[in-house]
Amino acid sequence: MQIFQQYIGGQFEDATEHFDSLDPATGTAWAKMPAATPQDVDRAVTAAEQAFFSSEWATMTATARGKLLLRLADLIAEAAPRLAELETRDTGKIIRETSAQIAYVAEYYRYYAGLADKIEGAHLPIDKPDMEVWLRREPIGVVAAIVPWNSQLFLSAVKIGPALAAGCTVVLKASEAGPAPMLEFARLFDQAGFPAGVLNVLTGGADTGAALTSHPKVAHVAFTGGPDTARHIVRNTADNLASSSLELGGKSPFIVFDDADLESAVNAQISGVFAATGQSCVSGSRLVVHAAIKDAFLERLTEKAEKIAIGAPDDMATEVGPLCTRAQQDRAEQLVAQTVAEGARLITGGTPLERDGFFFPPTILDCDGVDQATSLREEFFGPVLSVVSFETEAEAIAIANDTAFGLASGLFTRDLTRAHRMIRAIRAGIVWVNTYRAVSPIAPFGGHGLSGHGREGGIEAALDYTKVKSVWLRTSDAPIPDPFVMR
Fold first, then answer.
1. How far apart are CA 86 and CA 149, in angstroms?
2. Which residues are catalytically annotated?
3. pTM (two decimals)
4. Alpha carbon of residue 148 to chain centroid
5. How far is 474 from 480, CA to CA, in rounded Å?
């Protein structure tokens, strides 16, 4: 059984405690992962603080930081096949998705490498002729980055990339469910030549996260996960007053009007809810479809869903693999059964597959006529789609916004003026029109409500890791006037 090491202060080291990591395709342990203690957390944060204030990193130019990030991007691109295989083994995410996504992760580091020397201040036209005033953007300090198991190389890139571009240092806590890719990533980071302590990588559960987010030397917490955990994080930062960016869950509406290209919309819906086995924050898990085309749409959708290839995640032919944990499998089954008991009609799927591992089939629930259906409210984090129909544009908007979340949304229509009205009306951080799940390093993403605050990706993310310093320079040689007049 492979034993992984944690990465603290530029050194790989064995942990005093370990936990088993399970292969989701078989349900059996395949590796032992380090369980960071509070003492490990303190050493990692201290190493990050020392790197921030007193190492080569503290005086490194922005251009030099960018070159290191470029080197890291090249190493990630070279190692993409190995990282993809490791992520598939440890999380159950299918190899065709991990291969494509990790190859693109390098582009995020390249983007932030180019942005490193473009985080600029500003000159302020103060109405005092003997004053020059300008703003400096400076790195905020030690960043605690916490990522979930799904898409963790991507979700860490949108934290580590902008944080390092801004000049911060990072302590990253990988999820206890599938942390192997992040521990391997630490080796690439070390190989890239960053000074010791700039990045530290730990794994562990709630105790590790609590020790990290409440540490007095942490200046900012960047978290991706669920609202319940986010509430704990916000409470943990009460003493250190760390700022935070929270990218949380979603219950995204996928709205289809009767003038839409049905084949394109069906294919996008299949990808939007069943890709990654539904284990995505932006999963289009609520189909809001015009009543006039509902039956035709569901017929095509069900036919395609029932043909999806379910299998071993390391097989390139597999389209849907296992869920990451048994707890997710149990939760999906429970919520489907609860929604059916409330009156929803189960169209396909709904129960775990009778095979080793944590497999759950693509599932479609018709929730029309069921007031406050559980599946329309709760985030499954699994391959479950809930369907509800509408008659008017106003009704579609009301249904779309009838959620505590507000991360992503999809809209399919050929009517350009309607599209613009809907874009304005939908309360979500992302609106995809006639497409779904499109991403780019240039475009920020984030949500409203229980989907969190702050943005990841784009220039906005880098600014989250800075603080503004106002500088006042008096240019007059004349004596300073009466201090009780001067302000």
1. 12
2. 247, 281
3. 0.93
4. 8
5. 10
